[in-house]
Amino acid sequence: MYRIGFLGTGHIAAPMVRFLARTGHDITVSDRNAEIAAALEAGHGVAVAPNQKVVDGSEVVFLCLRPHLAEEVLQDIRFHPGQRIVSVMAGISLDRLKTLCAPAGDITITIPLGFLEQGGCPLPAYPSSDILDRLFEPENTVFEVPDERALNMHFAICAMVPGLLDLMATGAEWLGHETGEPEKAEFYTTQLFSGFLAAMTRKPGALACKRDALATQGTISLQMTEGLQAGGVHTALTQTLDAIRDRLNGQS
Fold this sequence. Notes:
Layout: E1 3-7, H1 13-22, E2 26-30, H2 34-44, E3 47-49, H3 51-56, E4 60-63, H4 67-74, E5 84-87, H5 94-101, E6 106-110, E7 123-126, H6 130-136, E8 142-144, H7 148-158, H8 160-179, H9 182-199, H10 206-214, H11 220-230, H12 233-248
Parallel strand pairs: 1-2, 1-4, 2-3, 4-5, 5-6, 7-8
Antiparallel strand pairs: 6-7
Helix pairs in contact: 1-2, 7-12, 8-9
Organism: Pseudodonghicola xiamenensis
Family: Belongs to the pyrroline-5-carboxylate reductase family.
Protein name: Pyrroline-5-carboxylate reductase
């Protein structure tokens, strides 16, 4: 078991804390988000402390700060040789983390999502996955990516999640307006997608294969895919992913 500290206690950190507390680790979280920290303390027995005390008492430190605040926060913290650092922050390079976290030099970057708590969350890792293997497998699948650019491209795809949720919310609102039952409309929309994806094979090309199996000639499914294409949704997605890629690679 490890002594693990979390700097930043928000919607990304909290599910990891609950998962790791459940599996027996000794957890201390920062007090930056007092409400979430208090809930974790009350419900899962974790300790709450100021940032420096979190670091001083931890073998593994998770950096879960908002990227635009991270530099300011980390510059005031003293890390220790031999500490393991895990960053989940997009847009802060490994080289910059080595400077901010020195003399701690064993650093891994990964991309968790909230459902990690229930298992089944893919965790890309760079440059090494061994500490994540020990902490999160077998419930979650950890895999190494070849370089930092590849990791950043996974961050970009991760940003699709709120975009897709936004589209689903629009669809659910439309259904609720048409039926007069907004709560049932959101339940149906959510269950429709979660159930479909849960049952789908994970083989390469499965997404396009399922799309083509549904969107056959004369169907309303084909009308939907053609309408989205004609409306420029796919072009907008690709352009946005390109812009996020450039931002993460320091080109914008």
